[in-house]
Write a structure and sequence with these properties.
It holds the Pfam family PriA_3primeBD. With about 800 residues, this protein is of the alpha/beta class. It has 24 helices and 35 strands. The strands form 9 sheets. A 7-stranded parallel β-sheet has the order 14-15-13-16-19-12-20, with helices on both faces. Strands 21-31-30-22-29-28 form a 6-stranded parallel β-sheet, sandwiched between helices. A 5-stranded antiparallel β-sheet has the order 2-1-4-3-5. Strand 24 (about 525) and strand 25 form a beta hairpin. Helix 20 (about 640-655) runs parallel beside helix 21 and helix 23 (about 715-735) runs antiparallel to helix 24. The chain is globular, with a radius of gyration of 30 Å. The protein binds adenosine-5'-diphosphate (ADP) and zinc ion (2 copies).
Length: about 800
Amino acid sequence: MIAKVIVDIPSKSVDFTFDYLIPDQMQAMIQVGMRVIVPFGPRTVQGYIMSLTDQPDSDMDISKLKKIKEIQDIQPELTQELIQLTEWYNQYFVTKRISMLEAMLPSAIKAKYTKYFKIESFSEVPQQLQLKFNNEGLYPYKEAQSNNDLTAITPLLKQGVISEETKLTQNVSKKKQRAVRLIEGFDVDAVLGSLEKSPKQYDVYAYLIDEQHHTVTLKQLDEMSFSKSSIDTLIRKGFIEKYDAIIDRDPFETRVFEQDEKQVLTTEQQVAYDSIIETIESQQQRTFLLHGVTGSGKTEVYLQTIETVLNLGKQAMMLVPEIALTPQMVLRFKRRFGDDVAVLHSGLSKGERYDEWQKIRDGKASVSVGARSSVFAPFKNLGMIIIDEEHESSYKQEDYPRYHARDIAQWRSQYHHCPLILGSATPSLESFARAEKGVYELLALPSRVNQKILPEVDIVDMREELSSGNRSMFSKQLHQAIEEKLARQEQIVLFLNRRGYASFMLCRDCGHVPQCPNCDISLTYHKSTDQLKCHYCGYQATPSNQCPNCESDHIRQVGTGTQRVEELLQQTFPEARIIRMDVDTTSRKGAHEKLLEDFGEGKGDILLGTQMIAKGLDFPNITLVGVLNADTMLNLPDFRASERTFQLLTQVAGRAGRHEKEGKVIIQTYNPEHYAIKDVQANNFKEFYDKEMNYRKLGKYPPYFFLINFTISHKDMKKVMEASKHIHKILLQYLTDKSLVLGPSPAALSRINKEYRFQILIKYKQEPALVDALKYLDEYYHDLYVKDKLSLKIDINPQMLM
Ligand code: ADP
Ligand code: ZN
Ligand code: ZN
């Protein structure tokens, strides 16, 4: 037998399969999708088995083929489907197969680990073989291969007599924490009796009796304010002891979830539910656009359709924009489906992620909830895929391999003949246009559950505030509303657009702003570390007290970072308890969840935050949402600026008045007449959509045209210009005259990391020869990159044009 293997070398020149001979003793074990070690030239490298065959490629001499050295997996990590997907992506998106394979797999398997065979049932394993296993019942996989034991083990593995066990190296393995436990052998009542005179020790001991079957860490005891010295005394007396407890990696496992009861669907929800279920039962591919205002019960529809999918013995995949930002969503899923849910996201440690991945791979979890990359979850029998907040730009991976989760999900739903559901209160123009044309099926939930009215939205013209002498960042109206809500002990959410809140240094005398020496951008000032930083290349410097341009010492920090806004807010409302959420306060693992929990428990009056508070928040006591700067996003040089503004403001506004109490929204802006803001006030998506579609048509932008953005970069400006001209020429040769080729022109960020950047943008509707052009360019510039570091980035359907 021969294996076709893609080797793990990220180079275009070897990005196809090579044939290897499979040694006899591996034949029973080997499967498509496994990773293997193979000789490659003078080296030994890892590879992925793409297919198995009896026939070599040509009439070459099989005996001359090199042999596979070692198999690395006991179960294949990749499914047949994912391998096929790699091929498709390589064909149409000009992406290296090996890069896609790497993007699909959890990073833990790139880390150090050891795989073992593990005995599940000793009596069924032949004596001879048993001897090879250690007293924990483990036998290293590698050793089994070199001992030629695979042929004997494979059938036992299939019967479940032997299983697979993976041990990751220290830093990704199970976490250890110092804990305390009772020392056994004492009559606990007698001990308690002896402690009656020392109530603090008594409390600790009594608590440990109650919790005998649970792990009690020192940290927990400390958090519950048990006295440290009493613990030490009890240890000295020999009643209790410290030990290293292994804390399970499942971040949700120790929690008890209340069952979440399913709701009786409203008529509108029922219509949506029925259409989806019909598609699932008839095993068709269909894409639905579930357009429902915030709080209209979309999630309830997801949950109930998933339940039906599970009852049919199938699996469901749910994508969310950024899971750290939606802890409430995860909780709802856990409450409804318990251990059936695997949670995949970047906040987990490698080991945790791998555990979740394995649960899916081995069929132990039937539902996944995860961000972008979870679209590759190795389910084998999908009944449904859901993308919540489908308009979010985080579904596009901007780094190579660039992919959009929506495209991948569409392909997978076709593969599995199952529906794809795109949900949003503010669908992307692309998706809504497809729904209007009947490519997608539109399901609408136009009102909130239980007829709760959407909050009233007021727009405040900040130009008027200025001219009436109010120079603060809070308009009179917002100021008053905050005071009112504080007095009524209701909660307030204040949103600041991240982009408007960077701070930088400015010389008051000559206007000089320190720039990054490597990039075409000003440096951002970070107060916490007193450093100037470049957000593109990581350059850092300590700010000087003297202007490097005119030597004046009037160089100051300007602009208002979120921290500064918090200070101002506190000065204005001294009695308010403020919780600030931004990249600085949420960088620690779990911090985000903790802050939200605090706010939910009423430990704060005002939640002040950036983009990350726009989504998912659902607290009954929020009755006021204020948007401090609605404009910063409007002014971005991007054709999606209005769309993004409309989406973000609608999301933020949706945080208010979701329950019994009525909500109010105040938007501060310098562009009160802009349709993206007015239509938020009117809560009229369709109105916004129609106007925006008009602009897109005039400007020849998506969804009327497709875009591809080429970015050419190199340290030598002349080379960039030459290459740009060449690419331009090639594109004109390949493309019909119905397409537009714009540029070359300097990119909006014309220099990053000392490299000059030029762009070419093409707009097209249908281009039969496009893929050929892309392949040609990709290959041509791949060689140039290897030789000369001249880089060509091809971004198909770009989300950002910077
Ligand atoms: P969305 O996902 O559209 O924001 P949710 O599904 O979160 O909406 O629903 C909003 C609120 O209404 C939630 O608290 C949910 O439990 C509740 N809800 C949803 N559907 C129903 C229903 N049919 N009957 C009663 N309450 C419901
Ligand atoms: Zn100066
Ligand atoms: Zn820089």
